[in-house]
Design goal:
The protein is mainly α and 65 residues long. It has a domain of 43 residues. It is 82% helix and 0% strand. Helix 1 runs antiparallel to helix 2. The two termini are 17 Å apart. The model has no long low-confidence stretch (mean pLDDT 87).
């Protein structure tokens, strides 16, 4: 693997982690504000963040020809 591919995939991994973390924090904030007895917004935001991060990963992977 060349250095450029390694750096690009490393950056995608960091983006995934940050996006999932921010999704969980947004969900916690929304749960505290709107529904303190359930964690519905946290679960929903994390699921959406994981979906977006997987989409970013798939689009960043090199295409096999």
């Amino acid at each position: 693997m060349t250095q450029n591919k390694f750096l690009r995939l490393s950056a995608v991994g960091v983006q995934m982690a940050v996006l999932i973390y921010l999704g969980s924090e947004l969900g916690k904030y929304l749960d505290e504000k709107y529904s303190p007895e359930k964690n519905l917004f946290t679960a929903l935001c994390v699921i959406v963040a994981v979906g977006i991060s997987l989409y970013q990963l798939i689009t960043a992977l090199p295409k096999e020809e």
